[in-house]
Automatic annotation (TrEMBL):
GO terms for biological process: peptide transport; transmembrane transport. It holds the Pfam family oligo_HPY. Keywords: ATP-binding, Nucleotide-binding, Transport. Its main location: membrane. It is a peripheral membrane protein. The keyword Zinc does not apply. This is Oligopeptide transport ATP-binding protein OppF. It comes from Pseudooceanicola marinus. It is found in: Cell inner membrane.
Length: 253
């Protein structure tokens, strides 16, 4: 069953040129979909539209069969309960003045989720491989990889149906990146995920399906294993050629 469907989406910033043109793809419930493309191809813009932060000028995005209404506050409030995001920079995305417990449980407060928030935050933080006493400390006491785990705990604490990860491992050093990719792999077995990345290697390791964007248009989409085995488009071939070495992963041919 389709959880999110992007239908003929076109978008321009202000009166500028279109940065997305006729973009269509579906995200099946439970799948991991990679959205790849070089810098400037429109990945972040598409992610903003999928988060309901902006509305497309053409086409529409459906979540669980209903169109996203970015300007409807009641709709967006309900949508926030179901969709969460993890962003690139684990340094700037955590408020340095707040304890981790407050940071991780923030979605529970803002979404008015009933129940014991401390207990839910403990469950989330331990599920990303950190100890419960992490909640009493501050962001500066943690490494980049640990901070990204904290950001992931915050994204999953309210048990969303869909998590969007935007270049969520690209700021990490290589060995930390491998560990966070492993964590995403574990989490992605439990929920639907969209990984936005310019790094084909990360998508190869994590995603069963992928969509390749080039200058705002989809140039290739389908099963990751198939695209890696037999890329049809010259642009996809060049993206693949830019990977120094494919990581070990479920879709390695
Ligand atoms: N706020 C904005 N106002 C005007 N143009 C923008 C804005 N944000 C992005 N753009 C333009 O839209 C196009 C797509 O940018 P976008 O950030 O979506 O690409 P991207 O694939 O995410 O790139 P990167 O990997 O570098 O983040 C680019 O040409 C960019 O210059």
């Amino acid at each position: 069953m389709t959880l999110m469907s992007v239908e003929n989406v076109g978008f321009a910033y202000g009166s500028g040129r279109r940065v997305l043109e006729d973009v269509s793809f579906a995200v099946p419930r439970g799948a991991n979909v990679g959205l790849v493309g070089e810098s400037g191809s429109g990945k972040s813009t598409l992610l903003r539209l999928m988060l309901g932060l902006d509305s497309p000028q053409q086409g529409q995005i459906l979540f669980d069969g209903a169109p996203l209404e970015a300007r409807d506050r009641t709709f967006i409030q309900g949508y926030r309960k179901r969709v969460q995001a993890v962003f690139q920079d684990p340094y700037s995305s955590l408020n340095p003045a707040h304890r981790i417990g407050r940071i991780v449980s923030e979605p529970l407060r803002s979404l008015k989720v009933p129940g014991d928030h401390r207990k839910m935050a403990e469950e989330a933080i331990t599920s990303v491989g950190l100890s419960a006493d992490t909640l009493d400390r501050f962001p500066h006491q943690f490494s980049g990889g640990q901070r990204q785990r904290i950001a992931i705990a915050r994204a999953i604490v309210a048990r969303p149906e869909l998590v969007l990860a935007d270049e969520a491992v690209s700021a990490l050093d290589l060995s930390t990146r491998v560990r966070v990719v492993d964590l995403f792999q574990e989490i992605s077995e439990r929920m639907t995920m969209i990984f936005v990345s310019h790094d084909m290697g990360v998508v190869a390791a994590l995603c069963d399906q992928m969509v390749v964007l080039d200058r705002g248009r989809i140039v290739e989409a389908g099963a990751t294993a198939e695209i890696l085995r037999n890329p049809q488009h010259a642009y996809t071939q060049s993206l693949l050629a830019s990977i120094p070495r494919m990581p070990e992963g479920p879709v390695t041919p």
